Amino acid sequence: MHAATPETPAATITATPVPDEKTPAAPHGPMPDAPTRLHQDAARLVREVPPLRPLLDAFVPLLEARATLRDAAPGWVGPLPTPTPDASVKGIPLLSGIGFQDVTEHLPAALEQLLPVMEEAFPALAPELAALRRALAVGDINASALSALAEGRAITLPSGVSAEVASFVASEAVRPFIERQARDLAPVLRAMPWARPVCPTCGGAPNVSRLQRERDDSEFITGHGGVRFLHCAACATEWRYKRVSCPGCGNEEPERLGLLATRERPFERADTCDDCKRYILCLDATECINLPDATIAALAMLPLELLARQAGYSPLAPHPWSAG
To answer: Rounded to the nearest 5 degrees, what angle is found at the Cα of 288, between the Cα atoms of 284 and 290?
Structure first.
């Protein structure tokens, strides 16, 4: 496996600031709620890497709003689905042929909360976001259309709103409800061993991974340093996967696998594959005292994403701040 350690470039996104967080949660106190945890993780990261403040200022308010929606969402309604016989062996995700339950009815209320946050966080998008809000108010577009757009289906867009912005809004509005359903399905996955590079819940691709110390002698540990977990870009499910293997193409040849890292933050890296020319972000959390939120951890690694793309690699699944 080959490695490179370039310098860390600064982020350049402009937005309203994240307030400084001087007092982290007590290590032995109650677990903070998701928005509070995001805020604490972001504040810690700002202190560690000041150039990332503009990026965090833009996205953390949106992440906090999403977390609030997710925690209040109804989740999976009714009996939990049963895995297909031999699903693990055949590589059939839990929701194959079923999909997540429809969340369209919840989108109007979600958009009322998310759109103002987006308009403030992303000034460059504010005119289109305002046009989308007006279109929703007069019925030129509805929640069903946005739900379809989040699933990748084509829709007729209102005047003044690009497909990129509409897709961004639709995906962010749907995401909290999908993630809550996936969280409710976690007990089913415990009885469904999974060794595939796609999500065991929905079949989605991973967009970030982490190494975590855990006592285990199975194939999931193929090198020193911990167990590897992949994080689904679609529903935030996490599952174990082989450490020395490309989740994109299955390549396990060390000389064809590489990584990009910085000298300042060697525990953050982009794992690259020279067979499929793709990369996935990875946080080495084996020495972490406080495990950061997966999305905050990925935000911190935007400089590595830029380096990976400059080197000719593309993401397995893009993050909203690095799509395109």
So the answer is: 130
Q: What is d(CA 164, CA 171) in angstroms, rounded to the nearest whole number?
A: 11
How far apart CA 175 and CA 104 sit, in angstroms, is 12
- pTM here is 0.85
HSE-CB for 77 with a 13 A CA cutoff? 6
12-17: average pLDDT: 29
Q: Mean of the pLDDT values across residues 107-135?
A: 95
82 burial via Cβ count (<10 Å: 0-12, 13-18, 19+): exposed
* Contact between residue 267 and residue 284 where contact means Cβ atoms under 8 Å apart: yes
The predicted structure's pLDDT at residue 29? 46
At residue 19, the pLDDT reads 38
The structure tokens listed for 175 are 């995401």
CA distance 59 to 64: 9
Q: Tell me the two tokens of residue 140.
A: 């030129």
Segments in 49-162 forming alpha helices (H) = 53-72, 87-90, 107-121, 126-138, 143-150
CB 184 within 8 A of CB 101: no
Q: Is the pLDDT of residue 2 over 80?
A: no
Cα 104 to Cα 101: distance, rounded to the nearest angstrom: 9
